[in-house]
Design goal:
Layout lengths: L6 E4 H6 L1 H9 L4 E5 L2 E6 L10 H9 L6 H13 L8
Parallel strand pairs: 1-2
Antiparallel strand pairs: 2-3
Family: Belongs to the phD/YefM antitoxin family.
Protein name: Type II toxin-antitoxin system prevent-host-death family antitoxin
InterPro entries: YefM-like_sf
């Protein structure tokens, strides 16, 4: 997913065009807010909602390796049983 470049806007633009700016944030855009030419803050989206078509998901799973659920569970249990501080660096 491509990241939108941050657009620089003035404090006045934020006040006067807040509706359009908020719609931009909802679309994934981010903004750097300036006052007297000095950047003072960033307005960024908190999360992005992305729809992935079912056919695309199924195609990705079709080529994924098979997972043995018993071995997978055992590997997870073994990983958690290890002391994270008992490692040689």
């Amino acid at each position: 997913m491509a990241e939108h470049a941050s657009r620089e806007i003035t404090q006045r633009e934020l006040r006067n065009d807040s509706g359009a700016i908020m719609r931009g944030v909802e679309r994934g855009e981010s903004f750097t807010i300036t006052r007297n030419g000095t950047p003072i803050g960033r307005l960024i989206p908190l999360r992005r909602r992305t729809y992935v078509p079912r056919a695309e998901v199924m195609a990705a799973f079709a080529t994924a390796p098979m997972v043995d659920p018993v071995k997978f569970r055992s590997d997870i249990d073994d990983a958690f049983a290890q002391d994270p501080f008992d490692r040689e660096w």
